[in-house]
């Protein structure tokens, strides 16, 4: 059994205990816990996945399955800010492709990559539920609606200094 | 509830719980499928089993559709056929058409179904998906491009093996089957994933590109590696066994195998096999010779020594890996031809510690129940046994019980593969098992949880109560490193369960005073009334393949065939009459006593059949000296082992794959094992060598045509085998006692012999409660403070599997396992070298830290040359020999 201190701070561990306590079956906490660790540590390391599995009594491979299934969970470190561009139908017909090209140009990276200064990671996602204001993208938890190629630079800049 | 449904116009009544796929197969209608496999949960993943059901618009997956009364199903319409063709077309978009080099070719479901239903052309012109294709382990290959994502491997790993080493990672079209973090496989190598793969996505590296599946013939046999007695299938061509496959649905294992059974076959055609007899010449060199001259040499010397120095000066030790026929003829040869009762097996020590207690307390000499009962047990107590190692497939049955909600409590000096799954895993120090079992008895007595019928039947508990009075539960808990709550709960669960059994093994019994643990275990069973019925009983488990058969066949210094005492005049006479020969009157020496007698110069000739004492017997250098002192040493073996190198005559024997015979497993089941290939070179089956040797000694009573004839004689001598012959065992093994009257029962489906002993409970002349007065079996002495458990690894069986290259890839070296806490206390780092010292001897070994070992305990596997456990084990007569638990001192090297 792994020790929590090998992977988590005391605060993180206590938060995780609280999350686990919300469920009758500890295994049910798998997604909220992984989500929490993703937020707290920026990605799900092998140690974190191992610990969470043992913490809720499931086989190790189970946390790996869940972590690789969901696009919001990452097993490799990502940038400080995660840029998710929707490429589904509404966004696509309203110019998502141009927006994406603009982001790639502005950040100097391809889809799926992280900027060398480790500030941004750019990914494509399917529908984020903002079809009424397509094209849309999300940066971390923030929704940006009706994005244009011109607004891309301004939006990104507002995040550069953010922690 | 039974329901009636119609499939393809034919009516059938089936149980309401089955699905349409199974109902159809009862009618002989084969619905194609990839993801369905017997014993696994149904998933409906592959969509290959789509059928049309009246009243249901869409096509339905037959494997997940429960039958309904009045249901009308069609499996043969153009719509169904079109759906099948489309599913195959989808699968073949990405599946590489590399059947030419695929090891699964010839037994690939996709290949077969595409041939039957598919189109010769594809409408998809795009590139095939090519995923990284790497090896995930030394013995198991994963080819992701061939994978059709039926999830059978993932389910079998979780649902049958309980390991869950494989998962489905990533998503959608990128989904792949793989281990945690895409790393190398870290698992039990049970081979279930290879078995379950319907295509060539998971295959055995051991036979990669060596042979085509259709070139091999198959032959069913019994696995040689442990006392579970699993049925397997040898696949061979040109007298070479190329692989083992799972015999689907067959045997007590239903086809399941473990790493040893599946991968350990490479010992059979090993290049180092001895293929001709060898006799030491005047220059002291072992030289190849003919059978005739080798046997004459053995006959002359053995007879001479027996004549000159008496039968007591000769002895024989045979492996409990040999068949019943081999073992029976071995003891007959030793007794009748060489006039000696000095016959034993390496597991004889167990027979002499465990069996007398079973006999005294219950009147039985084996496990009372069937292994199948373990599947359905409600509460199981495992004492001093890692069942997943000693008997891996019995371990699977325990895992099934856990999946069904069975409450399993382990009492072991460390964690096992079951610990993660079991209800409770109590790491009780060696020597304190007795205190724990007595603690359970105490709770049951104090809380009145005992069986009320027991009280009426077996009388008062006052003695038992008295024996557990002088310690409080708190004290017991402290001594056993458990909590009061754990002990109390275990006792309540056990007493309250409808079906409850106890497994106990070597760690508990093969220690000084270990039989007291067994006494207490029997007290617990009697007290709670868990005896003599389905699901309630006692399983003494030793891993040696045919340890039960060896006892039944009389390979024992004190027992003749059929557990008849040598000391009994009438029994001896009965056997003498059957043999038309003489049986010596005085009891013989046990295996360890024979070695001692050899050291003292009293034993002059020794016949070793399939045993390698230098690797597995206690004594180290003393043992080697004793063997070198022998006037005449015969070794009958597959390989030129260290012991064989000392022999005057070496006789080449065959492996189990090269002979016919029977083996008796841990649940008293006598099973037929059949020859797959001819003996390599000039090697002969052991029974044949004993027979020929007997004839060479001028004893016509040793002349047998085949092993079946030997079994017929066994049936006439061993009363509880009296109904057994090779023919009757053709389809199924039978549990003894099996008399001639029972023989007609075998035509009833599912009849397997005597499934449970003691149906009437204990007989009145038995001692119902032993009420063991002491609390611990032994404690370490201050000069040798550490308790070392010498045990087995999952991947090896004795020293024999050292010759398996495949199994050596899984484990080839011994390390001394200790808890990090213990290591720090001793100031010994993980990976450092230490000297392990017992009163007998010492050697240097590398330390591995392991959280699985209880603090204060040490574990050392006894398979490997780099840790010659013989040097540490303490020789002596039975009551002094220490072979499973040894006290040692650990010093930095």
CATH secondary-structure class of the largest domain in chain B: Alpha Beta
Strand content of chain A: 5-15%
- The CATH architecture of the largest domain in chain A can be named as 3-Layer(aba) Sandwich
Name of the CATH class of the largest domain in chain A: Alpha Beta
What are the SSEs and their pairings?
The complex is a heterodimer of chains A (163) and B (893).
Chain A: H1 10-21, H2 30-41, H3 46-56, H4 60-69, E1 81-86, H5 89-93, H6 96-107, E2 120-125, E3 137-139, E4 142-144, H7 149-160
Parallel strand pairs in A: 1-2
Antiparallel strand pairs in A: 1-3, 3-4
Chain B: E1 2-7, E2 10-15, H1 20-26, E3 50-53, E4 60-61, E5 72-74, H2 78-94, H3 109-117, E6 140-142, H4 152-159, E7 166-169, E8 176-179, H5 192-196, E9 202-204, E10 217-222, E11 231-237, E12 240-246, H6 259-263, E13 278-280, E14 286-288, H7 291-309, E15 314-318, H8 324-337, E16 343-344, H9 348-362, E17 379-383, H10 387-390, H11 392-403, E18 407-412, E19 424-427, H12 433-446, H13 452-458, H14 462-467, H15 473-480, H16 484-496, E20 500-505, H17 506-509, H18 515-528, E21 537-541, H19 547-552, E22 559-560, E23 564-565, H20 569-579, H21 591-599, E24 605-609, H22 613-616, H23 621-629, E25 632-637, E26 649-652, E27 661-664, E28 669-673, H24 686-696, H25 707-717, E29 734-735, E30 786-791, H26 805-810, E31 816-818, H27 820-826, E32 833-837, E33 842-849, E34 857-861, E35 885-892
Parallel strand pairs in B: 1-5, 15-16, 15-24, 17-18, 17-20, 18-19, 20-21, 24-25, 25-26, 30-34, 31-33
Antiparallel strand pairs in B: 1-2, 3-4, 3-5, 6-9, 7-8, 10-11, 11-12, 13-14, 13-26, 22-23, 27-28, 28-29, 30-35, 31-34, 32-33, 32-35
Helix pairs in contact in B: 2-3, 7-24, 8-24, 8-25, 9-18, 12-15, 12-16, 12-18, 21-23
């Amino acid at each position: 059994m792994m020790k929590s201190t090998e992977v988590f701070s005391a605060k993180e561990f206590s938060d995780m205990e609280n999350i686990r306590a919300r469920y009758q079956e500890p295994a049910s906490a798998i997604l909220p816990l992984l989500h929490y660790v993703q937020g707290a540590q920026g990605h799900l390391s092998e140690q974190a996945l191992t610990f969470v599995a043992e913490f809720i009594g499931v086989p190790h491979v189970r946390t790996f399955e869940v972590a690789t299934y969901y696009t919001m969970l990452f097993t490799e470190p990502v940038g400080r800010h995660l840029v998710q561009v929707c490429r589904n139908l509404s966004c696509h017909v309203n110019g998502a492709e141009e927006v994406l090209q603009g982001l790639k140009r502005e950040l100097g990276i391809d889809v799926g990559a992280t900027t060398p200064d480790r500030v941004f990671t750019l990914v494509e996602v399917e529908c984020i539920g903002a079809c009424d204001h397509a094209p849309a993208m999300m940066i971390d938890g923030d929704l940006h609606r009706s994005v244009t190629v011109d607004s891309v630079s301004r939006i990104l800049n507002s995040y550069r200094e953010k922690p | 509830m039974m329901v009636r449904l119609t499939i393809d116009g034919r009516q059938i009544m089936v149980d309401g719980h089955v699905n349409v796929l199974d109902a159809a197969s009862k009618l002989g209608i084969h619905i194609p499928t990839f993801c369905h496999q017997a014993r696994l949960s149904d998933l409906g993943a592959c969509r290959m089993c789509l059928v049309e059901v009246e009243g249901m618009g869409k096509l339905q997956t037959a494997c997940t559709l429960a039958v309904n009364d009045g249901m009308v199903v069609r499996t043969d319409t153009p719509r169904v056929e079109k759906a099948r063709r489309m599913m195959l077309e989808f699968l073949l978009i990405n599946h590489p058409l590399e059947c030419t080099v695929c090891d699964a070719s010839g037994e690939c479901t996709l290949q077969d179904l595409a041939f039957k239903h598919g189109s010769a052309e594809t409408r998809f012109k795009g590139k095939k998906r090519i995923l990284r294709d790497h090896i995930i382990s030394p013995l198991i290959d994963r080819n992701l491009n061939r994978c059709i994502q039926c999830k059978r491997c993932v389910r079998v790993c979780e649902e049958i093996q309980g390991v869950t080493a494989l998962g489905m990672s990533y998503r959608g079209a990128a989904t792949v089957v793989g281990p945690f973090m895409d790393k190398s496989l870290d698992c039990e190598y049970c081979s279930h994933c290879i078995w379950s793969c319907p295509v060539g996505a998971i295959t055995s590296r051991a036979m990669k590109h060596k042979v085509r599946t259709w070139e091999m013939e198959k032959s069913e046999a019994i696995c040689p590696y442990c006392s579970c007695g699993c049925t397997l299938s040898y696949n061979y061509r040109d007298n070479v066994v190329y692989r083992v496959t799972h015999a689907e649905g067959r045997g007590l294992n239903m086809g399941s195998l473990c790493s040893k059974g599946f991968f350990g076959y490479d010992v059979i055609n090993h290049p180092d096999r001895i293929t001709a007899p060898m006799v030491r010449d005047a220059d002291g060199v072992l030289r190849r010779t003919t059978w005739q001259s080798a046997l004459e040499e053995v006959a002359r010397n053995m007879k001479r020594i027996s004549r000159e120095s008496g039968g007591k000066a000769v002895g024989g030790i045979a492996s409990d890996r040999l068949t019943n026929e081999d073992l029976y003829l071995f003891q007959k040869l030793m007794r009748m031809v060489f006039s000696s009762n000095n016959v034993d097996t390496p597991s004889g020590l167990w027979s002499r510690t465990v069996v007398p207690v079973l006999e005294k307390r219950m009147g039985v000499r084996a496990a009372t129940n069937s292994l199948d009962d373990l599947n359905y047990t409600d509460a199981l107590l495992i004492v001093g046994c890692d069942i997943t190692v000693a008997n891996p497939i019995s371990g699977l049955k325990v895992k099934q019980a856990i999946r069904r909600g069975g409450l399993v409590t382990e009492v072991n000096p460390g964690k096992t593969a079951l610990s993660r799954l079991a209800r409770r895993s109590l790491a009780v120090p060696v020597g304190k098992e007795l205190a724990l079992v007595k603690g359970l008895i105490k709770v049951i007595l104090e809380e009145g949880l005992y069986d009320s019928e027991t009280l009426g039947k077996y009388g008062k508990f006052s003695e038992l109560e008295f024996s557990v009075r002088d310690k409080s539960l708190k004290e017991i808990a402290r001594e056993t490193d458990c909590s009061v709550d754990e002990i109390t709960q275990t006792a309540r669960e056990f007493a309250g369960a409808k079906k409850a059994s106890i497994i106990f093994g070597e760690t508990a019994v093969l220690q000084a005073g270990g039989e007291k643990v067994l006494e207490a275990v029997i007290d617990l069973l009697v007290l709670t009334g868990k005896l003599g019925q389905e699901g309630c009983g006692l399983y003494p488990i030793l891993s040696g393949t045919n340890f039960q058969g060896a006892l039944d066949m009389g390979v024992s210094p004190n027992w003749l065939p059929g557990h008849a005492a040598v000391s009994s005049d009438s029994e001896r006479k009965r056997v003498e009459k059957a043999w038309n020969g003489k049986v010596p009157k005085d009891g013989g020496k046990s295996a360890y006593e024979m070695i001692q007698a050899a050291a003292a110069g009293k034993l002059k000739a020794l016949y070793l059949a399939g045993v390698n004492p230098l690797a597995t017997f206690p004594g180290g250098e003393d043992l080697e000296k004793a063997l070198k002192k022998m006037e005449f040493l015969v070794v009958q073996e597959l390989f030129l082992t260290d012991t064989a190198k000392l022999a005057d005559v070496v006789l080449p024997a065959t492996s189990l794959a090269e002979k016919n015979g029977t083996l008796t497993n841990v649940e008293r089941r006598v099973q037929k094992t059949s020859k797959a290939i001819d003996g390599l070179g000039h090697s002969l089956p052991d029974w044949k060598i004993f027979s020929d040797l007997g004839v060479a000694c001028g004893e016509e009573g040793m002349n047998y045509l085949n092993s079946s004839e030997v079994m017929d004689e066994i049936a006439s001598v061993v009363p509880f085998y009296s109904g057994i012959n090779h023919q009757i065992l053709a389809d199924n093994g039978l549990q003894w006692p099996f008399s001639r009257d029972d023989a007609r029962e075998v035509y009833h489906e599912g009849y397997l012999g005597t499934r449970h002993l003691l149906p009437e409970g204990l007989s009145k002349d038995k001692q119902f409660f032993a009420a063991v007065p002491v609390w611990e079996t032994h404690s370490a002495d201050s000069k040798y403070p550490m308790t070392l458990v010498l045990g087995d690894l999952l991947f090896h069986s004795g020293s024999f599997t050292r010759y398996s290259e495949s199994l050596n890839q899984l484990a080839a070296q011994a390390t001394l396992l200790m808890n990090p806490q213990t290591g720090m206390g001793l100031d010994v780092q993980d990976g450092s070298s230490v000297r392990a010292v017992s009163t007998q001897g010492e050697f240097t070994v590398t330390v591995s830290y392991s959280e699985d070992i209880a603090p204060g305990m040490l574990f050392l596997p006894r398979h490997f040359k780099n840790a010659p456990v013989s040097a540490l084990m303490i020789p002596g007569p039975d009551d002094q020999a220490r072979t499973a638990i040894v006290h040692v001192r650990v010093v930095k090297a």
